Amino acid sequence: MRLVRHGGHETPRRTRAGSARRVAGAALATFLGAAVLAPAGPAAADSPLRDHAAQQGFEIGAALGVDHLQNDSQFADLAATEFNAATAENSMKWESTEPSRGQFDFSGADAFMDFAQQNNQKVRGHTLVWHSQLPSWVENGNFSQSELRSVMEDHIDEVAGRYAGEVAYWDVANEIFEGDGSWRNSVFYDTLGPDFVADALRMTAEADPNAELWLNDYSIDGINAKSDAYYNLIQDLQAQGVPIDGIGLQAHLINGQVPGDLQQNIQRFADLGIKVAITELDVRIDMPASQSELQQQAQDYRAVMDACLAVNGCVGVTVWGIVDKYSWVPDTFEGEGAPLLFNDDYQPKPAYDAVHEALGGSSDDDDDDDNGGGEDPPPTGPCEVSYSVANEWNSGFTGQVTVTNGGSSALNGWDLQFDFSGGQQITNGWNADWSQSGSTVTASNTEWNGSVPAGGSVDIGFNASHSGSNPEPGSFALNGESCSVS
Ligand code: XIL
After folding, report:
1. Is residue 250 within 6 Å of ligand 1 at its C-beta?
2. Which end of the chain has fewer CB atoms at under 10 Å, N or C?
3. Is position 222 within any domain?
4. What is the pTM of this model?
5. Half-sphere CA count of 279, side-chain side, radius 13 A
6. CATH number of the domain that residue 187 is part of
């Protein structure tokens, strides 16, 4: 294990992959505890957004507030069910991860990562270098150039290094330009000049060679002076050989004001050979929202989805929150609100249906009548199982099972069954609801891992007792269909 030094203390850097098993139980207890205590949320639709998105290799993401994940099971349920990508709303920002110099706090970021990983969600790391939500020790530190550079390097090294290999995209620098395309004044720009961006990109590449390196900003959705500034900067960076992989258009929009040249703008960035995503979509309405405003909002969501889906390099759309009542909008824009896909009662709004349809879902997925109005059976297909004994002692053992959906459609709920032939008895388990009747063991999805995209897999595990011999189960069935065993 690599050791890093902070102010004289040696702190083991947790290699997250290595400790995934250790944290899984704790994270599960937290999320599941919340999920079990509150009443189950209403189903948004039988085919969640993520299933349709996955079918076209598209990412549909949401910003997730960790406090809501932990304390609101209806929120956590929607987060898990509907989205195949996730961004931490606040918990990876500088003020959260390094509130004082060299003192790192990853409690929120780790909880977010655990949730995203348990739910097979692609993670956007947000954000490393930003003038906002920046602790005062950085902003008002009066550092020299070289000191500030090393403050920035230490921060990037610690944060991006901790999640190396686990974050698909890093928003390396956020909101670096003003509306007129000039550089925004910040402690980074004022002290280091414009090169702080290239430096931060290179530092992140070093800390996590696998992550894609992105810039991100608001009001760059259409073609304007600010998005031109990014267009020029990206070309400069490319000419200098600085790694740059993508640009995030935040898209904090006003109802009825989707820029008409959104798709053209996405296309011009894609034509530079980088990726594009809509990273923080919300569409705010003057409150109270009327029915016609909610219809307009649905059209706006649809327009944004269509623009991204139309361009090859546009990898996905992330909404900045899930339910209206937790959105940052009412706190930030006086008198405005209702900007998201679900209302305060966790019910899908017209905007949800618009996104669903843009992804290829039918508008009435939730009450399909193609089978006479009955419930659709969960789609099933070939499944693959790998079973292993992770640990064994004289009277018991820990078993691990990876279930892969080898079918061509997503699973919406699953039961895995197998038989123990040696009298083994499950004592407890994780990442599934475990039960045993005689020799037959059933593991059913929890509230948050029922949806498994085609090709996706779920890791589950258990402890069991045995009385001497511990033969492995010979066959497994998923939703009644037998699985291949590797
Ligand atoms: C917002 C969060 O949603 C709020 O909870 C927080 O108080 C302030 O920041 N652009 C960004 C996001 O890049 O990080 C911001 O998120 C919204 C604007």
Report:
1. yes
2. N
3. yes
4. 0.71
5. 30
6. 3.20.20.80
Ligand 1 and 114: CB distance under 6 A: no
Residues 48 and 96 in one domain: yes
Q: Let me know if residue 371 belongs to a domain.
A: no
377 located within any domain: no
In tens, the pLDDT along 444-464 reads 998 778 888 888 889 899 999
Q: Is any ligand 1 atom within 6 A of the Cβ of residue 280? A: yes
User: Is 280 part of the annotated catalytic residue set?
Assistant: yes
* Peptide bond preceding 404 in cis form (omega within 30 of 0): no
Joined together, the tokens standing for residue 311 give 């361009």
CATH number for the domain harbouring residue 462? 2.60.40.290
Q: Which domain holds residue 421?
A: 383-485
pLDDT for residue 36 = 28
DSSP 199: H
Residue of 82, 89, 158, 280 marked active site: 280
Between strands 3-6 and 9-12, the pairing is antiparallel
* 3-state DSSP helix/strand/coil % of the chain, to nearest 5: 35, 30, 40
30 Cβ below 6 A of ligand 1:
no
Whole-number Cα distances in Å, 136 to 140, 141, 142? 5, 7, 10
